[in-house]
Amino acid sequence: MTLAQATRRHAELAAEIRRHNDLYYVQARPVISDQEYDGLYRQLGDLEKEFPVLAAPDSPTQRVGGEPARSFAPVTHLSPMLSLDNTYSQAEVRAFVARVRKMLPGETLQWTVEPKVDGLAVNLRYEKGLLAVASTRGDGVKGDNITANIKTIRSVPLKIPFKGEVLEVRGEVFMTLDGFRKLNEERMAAGEEVFANPRNAAAGSLKQLDPRIVARRPLGAVFYGLGLVETGTTPARHHQVLEWLGQLGFKTPPKVWLCHSEDDLIRAIDDLEKIRHSFEYQTDGAVVKLDDVALREQAGYTAKAPRWAIAFKYAPEQARTRLNGITIQVGRTGVLTPVAELEPVFLAGSTISRATLHNEDEIQRKDIRIGDTVTIEKAGEVIPAVVGVVQEMRPAAARPFDFVKHISGKCPVCGGPVRRDPEFVAWRCENIQCPAQATRRVEFFTARAALDIEGVGGIVADKLGERGLAREPLDLFNLTVDKLGELNLGTEDAPRVFGRKNAEKACQALQRARTAPLGRWLFGLAIPEVGKTTAGQLAAFHDTIEDVAASPWLRDVIIYHDKTRTKEEREEAARRLLDAGFAQRSQNKSERETAIVTELGPVVARSVLDYFASEAGRRVLRRMAEMGIKPASQRGIKKEGQPFSGKTFVLTGTLPTMTREEAGARIESLGGKVTASVSKNTDFVLAGAEAGSKLQKAAALGVRVIDEGEFLKMCQASVHGRAQ
Questions:
Q1: How many CB atoms lie within 10 A of CB 153?
Q2: Does residue 218 contact residue 228 with C-beta atoms inside 8 Å?
Q3: Nearest alpha carbon to residue 200 among 662, 679, 667
Q4: CA atoms within 13 A of residue 110's CA, in its CB half-sphere
Q5: Are 221 and 156 contacting, i.e. CB atoms less than 8 angstroms apart?
Q6: Helix-strand-coil percent breakdown of the chain, rounded to 5?
Q7: Kind and range of the H or E element at 289?
Q8: Is 204 left (phi over 0), alpha (psi -120 to 50) or beta?
Q9: Which of 68, 205, 279, 686 is buried most deeply by CB count within 10 Å?
Q10: Annotated catalytic residue within 49, 102, 116, 532
Q11: What are the tens digits of pLDDT across the range 432-454?
Q12: What is the per-residue pLDDT across 58-81, written as a single tens digit (0 to 9) for each?
């Protein structure tokens, strides 16, 4: 094929893919299958590999960037991004209209009402029709440059038919409700912290430095306004602007009301509330705007908000229902979680019949009793939560729930022993062979943060267990494409097979997992007390999984911390640990004997050795050897010279835009270490909302406490120097 022929074919393919992107992501009416779309995309990519000159900035293949960014550069908006004033009553909406009328006497006023998307505000700058810069709102004057991440969102056009020099388009990035639920299921299966609501999930996604991660998140964007327009004409009325944006290829609000009076506005707000749960994204209110763009300029602005617009916020929807009972679920790690079994009630677009009660203390604090009428709401309008008890409706027969008496010291699934973990206020089943934990361990093993076996989590793991095909992680390596492809994910009456194509992908991933890094294996096996960070620390000091199982350093950690040992035994263990680099000398000079800080503590050391000494652990080692599974060595991977090298962080509370898992990954990528508890060896406590006792301990020990904003500044500054 000549370059001229390739150029013509490239233009045809790119135009076809853009058309299908618009049909699927903007208009929600696809006309071809995913397989057909993938075929077109592959053809385009192959052409660009053969003729690199064709890979223009607006090519559909440029949506996912290559290497992760080191930080987000600041971007100054050409026109400020202001916030909206909020109101929670219809009377205040009428008062708002009266104020605008007073500012614009004698004018005929029209208004628009549109859904208030609960996402993250963004500004897209197009130069000569090409997407040049995308940024967050930030402080309204400057935001973060998130261009690479925005390009991963298929509903955002990379090129628009705008003839002017510059056009700023304002909108909101959201996470779809279905995508949010699935993402949280994946994170829960992987042992990662779940997102509180879709807005946090969207914000956390856009803060990722690696656009390849963002591309896997179910993000969308809706656009509703303009910033600076340079050498170009735009419509004179807001409802026409929305139509125009749609013609340019932008996704706009699914429903907009044009109103002529206060009564029209109130009716529109009420109508929106009735249908807003049918949208693909979360909404938390209605936005009222003056329709005439010229009159807006006359009305003007305050320092923070336009005088011609206001946001009406809906109250969180609540419902009352009867608590019929409390059951106990056993999770992957053996934690026993009480669950409220409710009389089914319709709330915020779905029927709710169950809600978590978190733990024993939560039940006691709220005095929740079986038979009570309880108030429930969707936290963030997505996650069901029991807000409290309607005391005046408590029946005489309502009885307190005795958690301890209910479980009688036994796991409700396997009958094994349970114990209360004082640090996490939770009861835990100690039988690692508990069937309830088995399926979750398979699911955890396949998660992205562990061995990354795509498509084998959730319902697939459940069905593999039910059919007896994979009751523990290593059983997965006995699966064949035929056996996995025929797996019925439905019922006998309504079968739904996994499919050969999915099975081929899963089996290929399993083949790769045979030589995956040792740290991933140690994490994926769900060894008690071994999180992702701990697994990485173990892998840095051991060549093989057999070395970890018989680790002399873990034994020396136990000896050193065992006060029943002689001073000589403890001194000798300390010397060996120091020689191996598995410990550092403590700064505490008051100790008479050698004082050291070990890489891992005695609880972790004992847990790892006990696991591999158990029948279950020995069987894992034996089966891995029989199957020829050899995790890749990571020994000797050092982090000296990295910005956070030698720094220890403790994370607590809920961070505004990222999960603790993401913050921990950022720390580790810069050479730092994350530990679970605060000690005199802790350098920083990264604290978010509702931080607990770790803050008090930090204050008592004089440990520096930082918030997310300061942490992100440290990460950015670390590009140029070490953390201070």
A1: 23
A2: no
A3: 662
A4: 13
A5: yes
A6: 40, 20, 40
A7: strand 283-290
A8: alpha
A9: 205
A10: 116
A11: 678 777 777 888 888 877 888 87
A12: 788 776 544 444 557 888 999 999
The tokens describing 562, both together, are: 């065992």
The C-alpha atoms of residue 562 and residue 557 are separated, in whole angstroms, by 9
The token duo for 489 is: 């994910």
pLDDT at 658: 73
Residue 116 is a catalytic residue: yes
Q: Could you tell me the two tokens for 276?
A: 């807003």
Query: If pLDDT is split at 50, 70 and 90, which confidence band does 29 have?
Result: low
- Given a cut of 70, is residue 535 above it in pLDDT? yes
Residue 589: pLDDT band (50, 70, 90) is very low
- SS3 string, 442-497, reads HHHHHCCCCCCCCCCCCHHHHHHHHCCCCCCHHHHHHCCHHHHHCCECCCCCCCCE
**End-to-end alpha-carbon separation of the chain, Å?**
58
> Could you give the domains of the chain?
3-63 (1.10.287.610), 74-313 (3.30.470.30), 318-428 (2.40.50.140), 435-513 (1.10.150.20), 519-627 (1.10.150.20), 648-717 (3.40.50.10190)
How is residue 119 annotated by DSSP?
A: S
Residue 577 in contact with residue 560, Cβ under 8 Å?
Answer: yes
Helix ranges (DSSP H) in 375-434: 403-407
- Helix residue ranges, H only, 207-323: 211-215, 238-248, 262-275, 293-299
Who contacts 420 (Cβ-Cβ below 8 Å, separation ≥6)? 426, 427, 428
Q: Is the pTM of this model over 0.85?
A: no
CA distances from 153 to 64, 148, 149, 441, 465 (A): 9, 10, 8, 33, 36
DSSP annotation of 303 reads: S
Q: Between 190 and 209, where is the model more confident?
A: 209
CB within 8 Å of 125: residues ≥ 6 apart: 78, 131, 132, 133, 134, 135, 166, 167, 168, 227
